[in-house]
Specification:
Distance between the termini: 33 Å
Low-confidence stretches: 5-27
Number of strands: 5
Domain OmpA-like: 101-218
Mean pLDDT: 81
Strand order of the largest sheet: 1-2-5-3-4
Protein name: OmpA family protein
Shape: globular
Strand content: 5-15%
Main location: membrane
Subcellular location: Cell outer membrane
Keywords: Cell outer membrane, Membrane, Signal
Length: 218
């Protein structure tokens, strides 16, 4: 059977979209290799598209899919391993770790990280941040975004400044614990990216957070 370049690119695109939107394609959510599988699908789909666009023939497209799938699978496997080790090292069960298949997101609620209106890291959370830093040193092939968020209480400019200071405070603990400053970017989002409604106390509490986003270098 002969496939045209357009057909292969379309199939690759559907695989990539499916991997992002249909959890059923990846099987049991409890599968420890689920994120590796997602990485393979995403890598293969993107690799096929790149191969199709740059190589201009079917062989290049297939080669791109194979290489992309291998790379995506390796990234997914590393993230699965790092996630498991991080979970084992966390001392506070309110610290949330999310593995999306292409990154890890460590979410630190403000209520356990800072006092109200403060950007001084709670001593109780310092060991967990040191554990994150140790993980980053064990997995050096990644970059890190430390992102501060607030709710919408008060002036937007004040919240923006507070989110920046909190992100920097968390990043400073990571760096003082051995993570290279060249790997870390600090970002203040203020009240701009809520994950819950700011109309309830519970929602506002969810929005007050710092996220450590670990992005593998492909």
């Amino acid at each position: 059977m002969t496939f045209t370049k357009a057909t292969i690119a379309a199939v690759a695109g559907m695989l990539t979209l499916g991997a992002c939107t249909d959890p059923g394609m990846l099987g049991d959510p409890a599968d420890p290799n689920r994120n590796r599988n997602q990485g393979v699908l995403l890598g293969a789909g993107l690799g096929a598209v790149v191969g199709n666009l740059t190589g201009g023939d079917t062989k290049a497209t297939v080669a791109g899919a194979v290489l992309g799938g291998v790379a995506g699978g390796l990234v997914g496997t590393e993230l699965d391993k790092q996630e498991a080790e991080l979970r084992a090292s966390m001392g506070n069960d309110r610290v949330r770790i999310t593995n999306t298949g292409d990154r890890l997101i460590v979410t630190l609620p403000q209520d356990i990280l800072f006092a109200t209106d403060s950007f001084t890291v709670s001593p109780a959370l310092t060991p967990d941040l040191r554990a994150v830093s140790q993980s980053l040193q064990s997995y050096p092939n990644s970059t890190v975004q430390v992102v501060g968020h607030t709710d919408n209480t008060g002036e937007a400019a004040y919240n923006q400044d507070l989110s920046e200071r909190r992100a920097l405070a968390v990043a400073t603990v990571l760096m003082n614990s051995g993570t290279s400053p060249s790997r870390i970017m600090t970002i203040g989002q203020g009240e701009n990216t809520p994950v819950a409604s700011n109309l309830t106390p519970e929602g506002r509490a969810q929005n007050r957070r710092v996220e450590i986003v670990i992005l593998p270098n492909r």
